[in-house]
Amino acid sequence: MGFCGNGPLVEIDSQNKLYEKVKPEEAASIIEAIDGGTATAATGDLDIPFFSKQVRIVRETSGKIDPERIEEYIAVGGYQSLHKSVHDMTPSEVIEEIKRSGLRGRGGGGYPTGLKWATVAKMPGDRKYVICNADEGDPGAFMDRSVLESDPHRVLEGMAIAGYAIGANSGFIYVRAEYPLAIKRLQTAILQAKKYGIMGSQIFNSGCDFKVDIRVGAGAFVCGEETALIQSIEGGRGNPRPRPPYPAVSGLWGCPTLINNVESFANIPAIIREGGDWYASIGTETSKGTKVFALTGKVRNNGLIEVPMGITLRQIVEEMGGGVPDGQVKAIQTGGPSGGCIPASMLDTPVDYESLTRAGSMMGSGGMVVMDETTSMVEVAKFYMEFCREETCGKCIPCRTGTVQLYAMLTKILNRQANQKDLAKLEELCCMVKETSLCGLGTGAPNPILSTLRYFQEEYLELIEDNSNGKVPAIN
Ligand SMILES: Cc1cc2nc3c(=O)[nH]c(=O)nc-3n(C[C@H](O)[C@H](O)[C@H](O)COP(=O)(O)O)c2cc1C
Description:
Elements: E1 10-12, E2 17-20, H1 27-34, E3 42-44, H2 49-52, H3 70-75, H4 80-88, H5 91-101, H6 113-122, E4 129-134, H7 143-150, H8 152-166, E5 170-176, H9 180-195, E6 211-217, H10 226-233, E7 257-261, H11 262-274, H12 276-280, E8 290-297, E9 303-308, H13 313-320, E10 329-334, E11 340-343, H14 353-358, E12 367-372, H15 377-391, H16 397-414, H17 420-436, H18 440-444, H19 447-455, H20 457-463
Parallel strand pairs: 4-5, 4-7, 5-6, 8-12
Antiparallel strand pairs: 1-2, 2-3, 8-9, 10-11, 10-12
Helix pairs in contact: 4-8, 4-11, 5-6, 5-8, 7-8, 7-9, 8-11, 15-16, 16-17, 19-20
The structure holds flavin mononucleotide.
Flavin mononucleotide binds next to strand 7 and helix 18.
């Protein structure tokens, strides 16, 4: 149900009742309460904004069906979109529908999904691949894990529709080893789908074949980057390579490859079922549909939420999240290690790709961390830089040495050993690493520093020795 901070939750559908933080010894009284008894467990409220402001497309059946039984997915209309695609639509009609929906990649970059599908479909050759990126390495993010654990068939259905649309009969799900339950449920789901003739050869007695294999990653952040991920599936070291060529042109084993995020695929069945125009009616002009966020940090209600694009940060944090328990919001971090910190003064920023980028952050894959006045923003920048320093693959010099140096500079500042020259150098090095790194890990790594320098410069100045002498560096 997503209301993780108050779990374990028990919902009694027929009575529209919710119990929170349920203990094993309270279970019996909850059953008795269905027949008029009194439950000893604490009751929750299903009408609070945390639930009522959500629009659930990706998570429409999460928590409502048993993810280990394909029959339950089929009973709520599951696999009908795949059936409709292979029997009633041509591959280009499927792609047209995805284009019309305006869906953009949910893995961080926001590239238009329909356009990517069309590019792979146009490529010559009869060996093409579909890859589902379930690496999910951002600290604090667990959206994709939750989708895979609660509704694995939805992701498989999205992948199979993609396979039909682009002319691929083989797919891989790349999922990190730290997600054993997701892996187990995916394995079960694949076996069940095969048994029903939904996966494998001649799916739904059509002329199409589609099979999915799982590849387990060892849990390196860089392996979420598409070219590194492909290298890892091929059995090589997970290092990125320059693009172009993009995977759509030359991907897995040199073949045209469609790579999309878990949430991107999980949107597909609903788009085919309800139509691209329906999907495009939700959200903003340039960011359509919904986005799943992992709302965490200093906020009363934390957990997973699926919200329509265009909702403001204020609505998410103050209404859905119930605000900061003791004190005020200071900043909101979105976009993980490549994202940035948006100050409380900008809480009315709408959640869409462009607005978040303009604010110096990014949509990212869906991590959203709320910080209160007790948080040191320089410490926050150091936390993310430490992560990038640990996770850099070392292939390109700007990222390999830049993240180490940036981390050292932040440590110096926090130890009150830095001066204004160091602050200017910090910004200069951020720009260099951003502009010259090989992949998104390096180009995004300076963002948490740059955004905190932009909005919380005074915290850096307070920490430097000689902030009363000389000129304060110009910071954009
Ligand atoms: C360092 C790094 C890590 C990434 N990690 C992920 C990830 O865990 N999951 C993901 O879907 N995309 C990740 N991406 C983005 C992928 O490279 C790729 O753009 C994405 O899988 C494409 O899918 P989409 O178009 O559906 O978003 C990462 C990119 C970088 C640079």
